[in-house]
Design brief:
Blueprint lengths: L5 E4 L4 H13 L6 E4 L3 H7 L12 E4 L2 E4 H10 L16 H19 L20
Parallel strand pairs: 1-2
Antiparallel strand pairs: 1-3, 3-4
């Protein structure tokens, strides 16, 4: 799986974990790899790009490019099965609006969805898709 796109997510956020579980179920070709933003792996992946780690951001690293917030989410949706392609219509919404909506959800995610005491532990079947911490 070397060279596959990597999704970095807040590993203690229930909403974020739900989103990652959704991607895992939809990503039938096992295209994506995953790492929590709390991991040292995230530090190592972000450092060469000069991106500061923010726990309120969803990050996609693909083809040596870093996508954050709504752009990362839309890029991920591009790789999912055909029936999710309708989401690409959101590229027509200006980035400042998409990211403003993203920021409201990110700011309230713990209050609305809760959080865990520790990062999620992948099942043995999924462990190969998660990068070491």
């Amino acid at each position: 799986m070397q060279g596959n796109p990597v999704i970095l997510f807040d590993g203690v956020c229930n909403f974020c974990n739900g989103a990652i579980n959704f991607v895992i179920k939809q990503d039938k070709k096992a295209h994506f790899q995953f790492a929590s933003l709390q991991s040292t792996c995230a530090d190592q992946l972000l450092k060469p790009h000069g991106v500061l780690k923010k726990f309120d951001s969803f990050v996609l690293i693909e083809n040596n490019q870093v996508f954050q917030k709504s752009a990362a989410a839309l890029k991920v949706m591009q790789r999912l099965p055909w029936y999710w392609q309708w989401t690409q219509v959101f590229w027509t919404v200006p980035k400042f609006i998409r990211d403003a909506v993203y920021d409201v959800i990110a700011k309230n995610r713990y209050r609305w969805f809760g959080k865990k005491d520790q990062c999620m532990i992948p099942t043995p079947e999924m462990r190969s898709r998660f990068l070491a911490s």
